[in-house]
Specification:
340 residues; two-stranded antiparallel ribbon
Length: 340
C-alpha cells in the first residue's frame, strides 16, 4: 500500500471540494424552471453581501427551494457513504452498508409509527425515526457481540433478520393506515428530499461533519483493522474496543441522516467501491474521497429525480436503487465466485 503524503491528501481534498461545489452550483441552475448561471451567481453574491436588490422570484427559487435541498442532499450522501466505508472495513465485507444491516429499517419503522400516530411536524417524525434506528443498533450489537468482539457474520445475518422484522412492522401499520397516511409514509420510505428548510440542514450538518472528521482521524486504525484481527492485535490495536467504537459511530451517523431524509439505499454500498477502484484502498484517501463522492452522487441522483419527468418528481431512492441494485448483484456474484 503506497503511503499518501499530507500534501497529496490536501490537494485531492481541495480538488474534490471544488468539484462538489461546482455540482451544487449546477443543481441550482437545473430544474423545472431553468435559471442562467449569471442569475444564480447574482442571487448568491447579493445574499452574501446582504444586498436585497436581487429579483425576488429568482431569489425565492434559489435560496428557499434549491440551495437548502442541494446542500441537504450532499450531506445525506456524504454521511451514508462514510457510514458504508466504515462498515465494509470493520466487518471486512464489501456488501455491508447501513441499509443492509437493518439500521435504516429500524429508522423507517419509527417514522411510520410517528405518521400513523398523527404527528404532523417533521420534528416528531425525525425523533421517532432516530429512536427506531437506535433500537435497531442496540439489537444488532446485542446479538452480534461475543467474547472476542463483534462477529461479522452475526452482524450481517442479524441485519437481515432485523430488516425483515421492521419491514413486517411497517407493512402492518401501512395496511391499517388511511390513504393520506399511506401516501405520506410511502414518500418517506422512498427517500424524500423535497421541502427541506435550512433548520433541517442545520440539524444534519454537525452530525455529518463530525462523523466525517472522526472517521478521517480514525483512518490509520481502519487501515490496520482491514489487515485482519490477528495482524491488528500483533500491531498493538485493541480490535474489540476500536471495532465497537467505530461501529457505534457509523450507526449513530446513519441514524441521524436517515431520520432526516428517509430511506435511501445503496449510496453506502456503491460509492466506497467506486472510490476504491479510483484511488486505492488506503483509508486516509478513501475516507475524504468517499465523503465528497457520496455527496455528489446523491446530489446528481436527486437532480435527476426532480427533473427527468418534470413536473412530476420521483423519490430519490428509486434513482439510487436503479443504479445500486445491479451493482449489488455484481458484487454478490463476485463474492460468490471467491467461495467456489
Amino acid at each position: 500500500m503506497t503511503t499518501p503524503t499530507p500534501s497529496k491528501i490536501l490537494l485531492m481534498t481541495v480538488l474534490l471540494f471544488i468539484l462538489s461545489s461546482a455540482a451544487i452550483f449546477a443543481s441550482l441552475c437545473i430544474g423545472s424552471v431553468p435559471l442562467t448561471v449569471s442569475s444564480v451567481t447574482d442571487v448568491l453574491f447579493k445574499f452574501i453581501t446582504s444586498n436585497n436588490s436581487a429579483d425576488s422570484y429568482t431569489r425565492a427559487i434559489v435560496m428557499d427551494l434549491r440551495l437548502p435541498r442541494a446542500v441537504f442532499s450532499f450531506l445525506v450522501g456524504a454521511g451514508l457513504s462514510i457510514a458504508g466505508i466504515i462498515f465494509q472495513v470493520v466487518l471486512k465485507n464489501p456488501l455491508a452498508e447501513p441499509y443492509i444491516l437493518g439500521i435504516s429499517g429500524g429508522s423507517a419503522a419509527g417514522a411510520v409509527i410517528a405518521i400513523f400516530a398523527g404527528f404532523s411536524f417533521a420534528y416528531y417524525i425525525t425523533v421517532f425515526s432516530f429512536a427506531g434506528a437506535l433500537v435497531a443498533i442496540g439489537i444488532l450489537l446485542f446479538i452480534s457481540t461475543g467474547r472476542w468482539g463483534v462477529s461479522s457474520n452475526s452482524l450481517l445475518l442479524g441485519g437481515v433478520i432485523i430488516n425483515a422484522f421492521f419491514a413486517a412492522v411497517v407493512m402492518f401499520i401501512l395496511s391499517v393506515s388511511t390513504r393520506g397516511e399511506m401516501q405520506r409514509a410511502f414518500f418517506w420510505l422512498m427517500g424524500d428530499l423535497s421541502n427541506i428548510p435550512f433548520s433541517t440542514v442545520k440539524f444534519i450538518l454537525p452530525i455529518v461533519a463530525g462523523g466525517g472528521i472522526l472517521t478521517f482521524v480514525s483512518a490509520r486504525k481502519l487501515n490496520v483493522l482491514s489487515l485482519g484481527d490477528e495482524t491488528a492485535l500483533q500491531l498493538g490495536v485493541n480490535v474489540r474496543f476500536y471495532s465497537m467504537v467505530i461501529i457505534v459511530l457509523a450507526s449513530l451517523l446513519t441514524a441521524g441522516v436517515v431520520a432526516s431524509s428517509g430511506l435511501i439505499g445503496f449510496v453506502g454500498l456503491v460509492v466506497p467501491h467506486m472510490v476504491r477502484l479510483t484511488v486505492g484502498a488506503d483509508n486516509r484517501i478513501t475516507v475524504p474521497a468517499s465523503f465528497f463522492a457520496g455527496g455528489t452522487f446523491l446530489l446528481i441522483s436527486d437532480t435527476i429525480a426532480r427533473t427527468v419527468i418534470s413536473p412530476i418528481e420521483l423519490p430519490v431512492g428509486t434513482v439510487t436503487a436503479i443504479i445500486g441494485s445491479p451493482f449489488f448483484l455484481y458484487l454478490l456474484k463476485k463474492e460468490s465466485a471467491k467461495l467456489v
